[in-house]
Amino acid sequence: MGRLIWQEAKVVEVRPETARVASLVLDVPAWAGHRAGQHVDVRLTAEDGYQAQRSYSIASAPSSPLTLTVERIEDGEVSPYLVGELRAGDTFELRGPIGGYFVWDADGARAAVPLLLVAGGSGVVPLAAMVRHRVAAGSATPVRLVYSSRSIDDVIYRDELDGLAATGDGVEVIHTLTRSQPPGWTGYARRIDATLLAEVAWPATAAAAAFVCGPTRFVETVAAGLLGLGYEPGRIRTERFGPTGG
């Protein structure tokens, strides 16, 4: 891969996902394509020349227009602008795609085994790209997404994910709501731990490919839980984020 260069991205659409999260559909004329699970760097430059840079996962399937999904961090330097101020027609700089470890290809070796995706909060973004890639490619790989959110209103892509699960096409979505639950909630209502994983993850004998994304402590807990279930370390890919300031 050649040296990454900064490119101008034009906003085609700003699509609200939750009260704090929005997806940005972009037009990047020189974009060379990406793989599901990769990310980009975004750079903003102020009038006085000050620059701020952050990394964001790509939300879209490789066959779809480049889309980023961003969670607003209230005291952040980048995310409040991307989520709260950007409008269609605005531009900013990005470079990518970046990363070759945390990726899933519908025609790759890992497509031959079940796919286990475990997300905490906005960690669902690169995992959703994998699900969307599977659907767009017409893959038959069985997928199980285990998604931890604070409340039902914090579930990113809620309608889309539940719609996919309802088709019976091999995509299962298992929610757990850790802070509050709506009336009549029958799903999980606790943090993901080894016990919950034992109930919902593919058994180790399935030799599933596991991708885990979320806050650092979440990722460490899930990875340890999967190892405890007998998952081989090489079958667990992790991506984590911390309080970087957005």
Give the gist of this structure:
By secondary structure, the protein is an alpha/beta fold. It is 20% helix and 31% strand. The strands form 2 sheets. It has a 6-stranded antiparallel beta sheet.
Core attributes:
alpha/beta; five-stranded parallel β-sheet; 11 strands; Elongation Factor Tu (Ef-tu), domain 3; globular; 2 domains; 246 residues; 31% strand
Give structural notes.
- This protein has 246 residues and is an alpha/beta fold.
- It contains five helices and eleven strands, in the order βββββαββαβαβαβαβ.
- The protein starts with 6 loop residues before the first strand and ends in a 5-residue tail after the last strand.
Query: What is the β-strand count?
Result: 11
**How far apart are the first and last residues' alpha carbons, in Å?**
28 Å
CATH class label of the largest domain: Alpha Beta
CATH topology of the largest domain: Rossmann fold
Report Rg. 18 Å
What are the low-pLDDT stretches, counting only 5+ consecutive residues below 50? none
Count of separate DSSP helical elements = 5
**CATH arch. level architecture of the largest domain:** 3-Layer(aba) Sandwich
Overall mean pLDDT score? 94
Helix and strand content put the structural class at alpha/beta
Order of helices and strands: EEEEEHEEHEHEHEHE
User: Which strands sit side by side, in order, in the main sheet?
Assistant: 4-3-6-1-2-5
Please describe the biggest sheet, giving its number of strands, its sense, and whether it closes into a barrel: 6 strands, antiparallel
The geometry reads as globular
